Amino acid sequence: MRPYLSTARRYRWLLAAILTLVWGAGIAAAFVEYTTTYESGATIWVLRAPAELIQRNPSDPTITSVQTVAVQQGELLNQLLLTKSFLRDVVQRTSLSGDLAAATDEAKYLEQMRKRFRVEVLGTNLLMVSFTAHDPRTPPELVNAVLAVRDERVAQARVADTAVVGALYQKDFEIAQGQALEAQQRLEEFDATHRPPLNTVDEHVQAGEDLVTALRSSGRRRFRPVLMTSLAAMLGMLPLALALGSGSELLQPMAICVIGGLLFALMLSLVVTPTIYALLRRSSSDGASGAMPG
Length: 294
Hints:
By secondary structure, this protein is mainly α. It has helices at about 1-10, 10-35, 70-80, 85-90, 95-100, 105-115, 140-195, 200-205, 210-240, 250-290, and strands spanning about 40-45, 55, 65, 115-120, 125-135.
């Protein structure tokens, strides 16, 4: 140990000179850097995180992890600063646009500019963007330009997203409209081939029967309900028509008229009406066949 100490004492002035040069140069460089470096920053307050930023934990889907809006905006700004087009737009809006145009290596110049930016998340809703330079006018210009270009890019992205969503909705609407028109066309074709009958006679005619057979089939089909209804009403009026109760003489004429009217209606429904219908149907068919060109 003594040889080292004796050697240090012997060359103490040389060691002191070396330390003075090294430390002095470092202190001088630090002082110059401190006095000639300027930093400008902007603290931004952002809104709370929307519901779509709530993400599921992949290890446990039941636990939700909320990505704060400050973290989201910070990541977005860092990603934008990594793109050359974004940095180019930022620099072109400042007084450094001439230096950018005169730079021999644009990518290297933009990379140096990017390293001077710093994005920090200060809290849930606080975000700070800062820039460091030797010119006192450059940092505020670049910070303001970054925020302006970022707002423009976000607005353009929102417009593009709105246009894409609108195009998707328009496509879905056109598909739904085409399906509705196709369904309407099928319904019209079905109605044209399956016209509902106006009465039981038309139903039998559409089934392929001739008019007389259709009238007979319809008469047999409607004979029982019409007869049962008429008989029920006539049997209800029969005690009054026979004057079986006391004081029924006053209502006997009315009961006789009702029974007679029901009998007439029964004959009219089952005999007269089908006959008149057959005559009218035949006359209309003859008129239509006579109007056809021979």
